[in-house]
Automatic annotation (TrEMBL), chain A:
Highest rank taxon of the organism: Bacteria
Transmembrane regions: 20-41, 47-70, 82-103
Protein name in UniProt: Cytochrome o ubiquinol oxidase subunit IV
Protein's organism: Acidiphilium iwatense
Alphabetic keyword roster: Membrane, Transmembrane, Transmembrane helix
From TrEMBL, chain B:
Gene3D superfamilies attached to this UniProt entry: Cytochrome c oxidase-like, subunit I domain (1.20.210.10)
Principal localisation: membrane
KW Transferase (keyword) present: no
Entries under PANTHER family matching the protein: CYTOCHROME BO(3) UBIQUINOL OXIDASE SUBUNIT 1 (PTHR10422:SF35), CYTOCHROME C OXIDASE SUBUNIT 1 (PTHR10422)
Superkingdom of the source species: Bacteria
The family this protein is said to belong to: Belongs to the heme-copper respiratory oxidase family.
Keyword Transmembrane in annotation: yes
Membrane topology note: Multi-pass membrane protein
Signal peptide: none
SUPFAM superfamilies, sorted: Cytochrome c oxidase subunit I-like
Protein name: Cbb3-type cytochrome c oxidase subunit I
Keyword list, A-Z: Cell membrane, Copper, Electron transport, Heme, Iron, Membrane, Metal-binding, Respiratory chain, Transmembrane, Transmembrane helix, Transport
Transmembrane regions listed in the UniProt entry: 32-50, 71-91, 123-147, 159-182, 209-233, 253-279, 299-318, 330-351, 366-388, 400-423, 435-459, 475-498, 510-532
Amino acid sequence: MPAHSTDPLLHPEVRQASILAYGAGFVASTVFMAIALVITLGRVLPYLGLLAAISALAMLALLAQVVLLFRLDLSETQLWKTVSLALVIPLFVLSIGLTGWMFHTLYPRTMLHFMAVQGSGSMM
Amino acid sequence: MSLVHLQGSWTPWLGRLTLSVILYHNGIVDGAFVFAAVTGIVILGVITYYRKWGYLIREWITSLDHKKIGVMYILIGLVMMFRGFIDALMIRTQQMMADGPDSPGHLQALHGYLPPYHFDQIYSSHGTIMILFAVTPILVGLMNLIVPLQIGARDMAFPYLNAVSLWLTAAGAGLVMASLFIGDFSHAGWIGLIPLTELPYSPGVGVDYWMWAIQIGSVGTTLGTVNLIATIVKMRAPGMTWFRMPIFTWTALSTNIIGLTAFPVLGVALALLGCDRYLGTHFYTAGLGGNLMLFTDLFWIWGHPEVYFLVLPAFGIISEIIPTFSERPLFGYITMVAATFAIAGISWSVWLHHFFTMGAGPDVNGFFSVATMLVGIPTGVKVFNWAFTLYRGRLRFDTPMLWAVGAVFLLLVGGLTGMMLAIPPINYTIHNSVFVVAHFHCMVLVVAFSIFGAIAYWFPKVFGFRLDEHNGKRVFACFSLGTFLVFAAMFALGFMGMTRRLDYLADPHWKPLLIVEEIGVFFYCVACYYFFRMLHVSIRDRAKNRVGADAWGTGRSPEWIARSPVPFYNFAATPHFNALDEAAWRRGQGLSDVAPRDYEPIATPKNTIAPPLIGALAFGFGFGMVWRIWWMAGLSLIAIIGVVILRSFATETEHVISAEQIRSMETTGSSVGIVTDHISPPVAEAEAFL
Ligand code: HEM
Ligand SMILES: [Cu+2]
């Protein structure tokens, strides 16, 4: 391996860094997450509305981090990282999707609340 | 402080810590304490007496050399494995003694010799230690050691990060050990049975120890996965194309992709539990909007991939050992790579088979049942590939080969019983019975067998001499006999209805089989004895067992072209690769002994005290959180950030060895391996920085 004797400050990733973007990324993601916390604690929205709202806020926080903090794009320096992030999406869909499906079939069988709604409750 | 209701006292300076948590009135714990304290004092005393502190700190603790880090990982893992083994011995003995209403009680126990509260801590620590602090670190250590050698690299992509990972793992292991003497460990199983882990049901510090130890250790493991992936993708020497990569490196790549994607889920699952326990939230509580099934779900989203994180490198090890001792190339290299990635991919969609009985609908259980059984196909491909490699090979049964072949047999038993468990109607009858325990022990023993095989196989590469074969074979024989006795009996007990995690067993008919298991454990003890004797004899007779670059004479993959013991710079000149199985190719071409004509300067990373410091501070942070000593946790965290920032100002992080120095070290054949009695050059240079 060649000696890494070059100045680390010349590294392309380091060249991309900017205090402004870091600050903005930090503030933006903190704000989005704080809003999510507040509306969860406040219980102002109905169940589905709350779910939609915090999902949207999570997406925004993620975007703020991807764009402002990590500065991911399709340039040569960042391509590998962008691709790695994209590759995680199937896992995301898989784990959250299957979990959702599982709970969807689990609640009617195990949760008293749903048993009351559905009348007879357990099928097993 | 008032966010959650804490039992017992709390003071700002000491948190929940009081003198009474240290002083027990339990013979077993006192015994363990005395044993550990005496051992510790003896070890520290010996180091001091022989004035080895400087050596240890200079050559090992501050080292960034991937081989030394690998060896330290393996040492930590072996020590923890020994501790986990003592736990197992205690569990088995308690169950044998506490069978039937007439079984006598000793010490403070009604039956057997361990009261339930203590027994529960022992099986919880056994599982946590064996999976997360024994087998995982050993495998990570092996990958650290071998992967750079196999791809012709000088070190890992990020040597400093590598050391940070090691010391975070050490901090986690340290927390588990500390719980033995200061407070308790969790009694809620290695999987953290929910809602038992919630504060109202586990008001002590046990669950906190479990949670923070895993959390800190797994940050280390996650950082390690990034490092290994980057190393494999970016650091391959010229000619090392993707499809010339040795199988062990392929399995390392797939395993670390699994680790990188799965460990964060564990981190989140535990962090939410932490929110419940520290901030009074209701993620997993039974009421107030909490959902306790969510913990089980999240835990296994990590947990199942984790078991493949363990087994894939083991498959890689088997795939390295079998060709070497069959004197043939591995059968079906491409299918082996494909099977590795198929297993890794499928491992993400099977986790629900750990809770078929929770009550999800038949479609869901059916889906996960089929997905689970699909894993059998690529696993079967691997087994056939190994069988075809053995077929008509010129077989030699040196110790590594014995372990590898033993592992394949265990894989069959574990895999087939896994298939049984994957069928929901069967699972409903044997879930949470010791049949499950026997299944996964066969599987994790595949890993353990491979580890012992790997240690025997690669030891000469790292240290320059072989382990003693005579005692090594005895370790194998006793270990295998113990495995057979314990787990054959355990499968039978599972069918007889014995459930997991029992401190008292109601059915006296189980007694004979429990005694068989205890006899099996006795053979494990004998295996331990021979293991230590093997180390002793090997080191004593090392001059007799010296080896050259190709320690077994029939090595195939590239690590066998490096000198044994591997010099700290790995390869005197950057190797160029010409074929899959480079060492075998060079042997075939008569190029094994060719020395490079020209040497170039080599840069190696300088030592630094930062990683062990970060590890120590992480321990302080974890300890502070466990005992709710906020100032301690806070200061440690700030100090960690400070150390990281300070270190980023270090500019002279590399030490360059001139071409002449390399030439002289290569031509005089002087020992520049990892155990030397003189100060190795990168260290001598770095002294100023310490
Ligand atoms: C052919 C592949 C495999 C199949 C079909 C399989 C199937 C299963 C099933 C269905 C269970 C759940 C049993 C229950 O709790 O009712 C289980 C548990 C388990 N398996 Fe496997 N398994 C396989 C491979 C492995 C491997 C490779 C490992 C580890 C190296 C492993 C480790 C475990 C562990 C640790 C548990 C239980 C954890 C616990 O509840 O404490 N399995 N397996
Ligand atoms: Cu599983």
